């Protein structure tokens, strides 16, 4: 049978979860933090009140849009840069190169400014002007290149690697397969959720979607280890991704076509996800019609203005809580805010073009204003 890479858990991986934090102090509770890097992490875990009372469960969302760069990817950005520093790959004045069109680029731009590194971002030329402009304003050297598949040597990821290799004192941070990304969540996201739920006593499950897999794998690794396997872990997967079929049926097969969710869905087990694949107890597939409804429900009921991957995670958290039974407590990640997507998610014609407008309940359509 077809098989993606899924190595068994190593001893060193197990030790990781209990090791002391090895990177910059990520946030502190009540003291001055030293520079912007100290403001990464320590985000609130928010009880989503309406969904909780409706389900008779506790639905908890980690407010990652409150990171300085506005997303969960600030954690990975900080760790990949500090991993390079620690390993002598990056000296003062050096250059960071990454292939990304999204939140990782924004996170890297903030971190690189704060630490005095140059940043070069390769991205497919299909990306929105807003994203390019934001990265430029944050000081990045943005290089849009033709949008060709990974198998083509001109793909933006390969160009990023080659560019870094052509420079001295430069690093390709390689978020997909650089396990410093996963380490960020083993050392910060996991322990924070643990502390925020009375050392796991008030938590039964954790679920989230994956792009690189760093968030899911690292948080799962910590919570499984710390709870002695008691806390259940689910993967939430959007249309177009292969991970749902692989987890539930062991076959590599896309479920559905493209999705309105950005930054998530995968066609392979990355090096960040592979070591922890077996820690994931189950997977849930969430159609875009459910996701879009939740974008507007979260805004209407909780005042939370979040992107589509976050809304999808919350739909999955509700399913998981129902699956675990009345009174269960499930945490997920609210990955970023909606401002980055407003020209699409809040546009009637765009939603109509995707066949999604009709799925938004009539009383929530007042939010679709553009
Ligand atoms: N949501 C959004 C909006 C993202 O940009 C990403 C990162 N690509 C994710 C979720 C998934 O995070 P991870 O890379 O840790 O799997």
Automatic annotation (TrEMBL):
Its main location: mitochondrion. GO terms for molecular function: cysteine synthase activity. Residues 39-336 form the Tryptophan synthase beta chain-like PALP domain. GO terms for cellular component: mitochondrion. Its EC number is 2.5.1.47. Keywords: Amino-acid biosynthesis, Mitochondrion, Pyridoxal phosphate, Transferase, Transit peptide. It is an enzyme of class 2 (transferase). Pathway: Amino-acid biosynthesis; L-cysteine biosynthesis; L-cysteine from L-serine: step 2/2. It is found in: Mitochondrion. This is Cysteine synthase 1. It comes from Geranomyces variabilis. Catalyzes the conversion of O-succinyl-L-serine into cysteine, the last step in the cysteine biosynthesis pathway. Can also use O-acetyl-L-serine. One of its GO terms (biological process) is cysteine biosynthetic process from serine. Pfam families: PALP. Transmembrane segments: none annotated. The keyword Membrane does not apply. It catalyses: O-succinyl-L-serine + hydrogen sulfide = L-cysteine + succinate; O-acetyl-L-serine + hydrogen sulfide = L-cysteine + acetate. Its cofactor is pyridoxal 5'-phosphate. PROSITE patterns: CYS_SYNTHASE (PS00901).
């Amino acid at each position: 049978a077809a098989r993606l890479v899924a190595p068994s858990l190593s001893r060193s991986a197990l030790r990781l979860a209990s090791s002391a934090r090895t990177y910059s102090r990520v946030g502190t509770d009540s003291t001055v933090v030293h520079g912007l890097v100290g403001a990464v992490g320590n985000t609130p875990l928010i009880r989503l009140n309406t969904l909780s009372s409706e389900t008779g469960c506790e639905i908890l969302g980690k407010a990652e849009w409150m990171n300085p760069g506005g997303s969960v990817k600030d954690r990975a950005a900080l760790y990949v840069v500090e991993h390079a520093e620690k390993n002598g790959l990056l000296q003062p004045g050096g250059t960071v190169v990454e292939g990304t069109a999204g939140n990782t680029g924004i996170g890297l731009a903030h971190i690189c400014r704060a630490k005095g590194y140059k940043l070069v971002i390769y991205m497919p030329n299909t990306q929105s002007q807003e994203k390019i402009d934001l990265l430029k304003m944050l000081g990045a050297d943005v290089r849009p290149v033709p949008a060709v598949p990974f198998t083509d040597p001109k793909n933006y990821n390969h160009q990023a690697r080659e560019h870094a290799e052509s420079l001295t004192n430069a690093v390709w941070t390689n978020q997909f397969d650089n396990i410093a990304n996963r380490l960020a969540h083993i050392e910060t996201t996991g322990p924070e959720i643990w502390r925020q739920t009375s050392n796991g006593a008030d938590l039964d499950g954790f679920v989230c979607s994956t792009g690189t897999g760093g968030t899911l794998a690292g948080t799962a690794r910590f919570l499984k280890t710390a709870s002695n396997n008691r806390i259940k872990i689910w993967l939430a997967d959007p249309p177009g991704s292969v991970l749902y079929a692989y987890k539930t049926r062991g076959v590599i097969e896309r479920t559905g076509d493209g999705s309105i969710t950005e930054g998530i869905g995968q066609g392979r087990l990355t090096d960040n996800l592979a070591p922890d694949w077996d820690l994931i107890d189950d997977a849930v597939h969430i159609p875009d019609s459910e996701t879009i409804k939740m974008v507007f429900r979260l805004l209407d009921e909780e005042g939370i203005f979040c992107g589509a991957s976050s809304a999808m995670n919350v739909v999955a958290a509700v399913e998981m809580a129902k699956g675990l039974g009345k009174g269960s407590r499930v945490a997920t990640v609210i990955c970023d805010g909606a401002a980055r997507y407003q020209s699409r998610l809040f546009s009637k014609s765009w939603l109509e073009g995707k066949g999604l407008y009709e799925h938004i309940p009539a009383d929530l359509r007042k939010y679709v204003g553009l």
